[in-house]
């Protein structure tokens, strides 16, 4: 077996390579890239979502290792994405149903005009140095993710803004004047992209010492041994794996198909849980009509599964 074949051979039971990537860069021709990128992914058995905008690219894709390498090579052959970095993990099953290349106004939606991580951004901190920073009493640690993500995992001692969407984060910062009482602000998110804009926003708001975890939680879980880790719980990911743990191993969470909230083993034993219809997190917020609609959708999904097909609503 050649060295290249050895590199591309997946571990037993982990057939698919998953690549998470983003890159902030000016791309005036971003719309021109959509069609050829979509076609290339489909030709190579790659699925997932890639977002293209004037400010760059963001997304996660999965497929056979050779297919992922082909797509990454194509992206890096574009002058704008020559410096593109990515993070890899493995999945036993294909974690995406289809391939989508979408054109967007922002590659991560914060809703604040003129926030440009290429102009100003926080200080990157490598995973190996993260524990020392967040253990410093002079540091306030902020999780920039949303409430359904923080519900299943968070760094020890972190402040959870309990935001429903990233658009709420700027107002949360503006309304928490006490943040100025700490000399150091440390921030983190899943893969690093939200912190690019969050730290840029904090700098614009007058905060001086602003730091963020390079590569996000995913890189930390990949590189920092479990016995040294300050991470508690699992990390939510936006694909069919639902969550990952140390070493980027697939977690034990499932997903409520009605509200997309990650579910624990305890959640699925609750009286309010019905597969594809409701869970403890959304039961009170839904009407009987909603649940009947979800029930019919679940029935179609079950029928498609029996035929050996993937139902697009799953």
UniProtKB/TrEMBL annotation:
Belongs to the TrhO family. Keywords: Oxidoreductase, tRNA processing. This is tRNA uridine(34) hydroxylase. PROSITE patterns: RHODANESE_3. GO terms for molecular function: oxidoreductase activity, acting on paired donors, with incorporation or reduction of molecular oxygen. One of its GO terms (biological process) is tRNA modification. Residues 135-229 form the Rhodanese domain. Catalyzes oxygen-dependent 5-hydroxyuridine (ho5U) modification at position 34 in tRNAs. It catalyses: uridine(34) in tRNA + AH2 + O2 = 5-hydroxyuridine(34) in tRNA + A + H2O. The keyword Oxidoreductase applies. Pfam families: Rhodanese, UPF0176_N. The keyword tRNA processing applies. InterPro entries: Rhodanese-like_dom, Rhodanese-like_dom_sf, TrhO, TRHO_N. NCBIfam families: PRK00142.1-4. Its EC number is 1.14.-.-. HAMAP family: TrhO. Residues 293-314 are annotated as: Disordered. The gene is trhO.
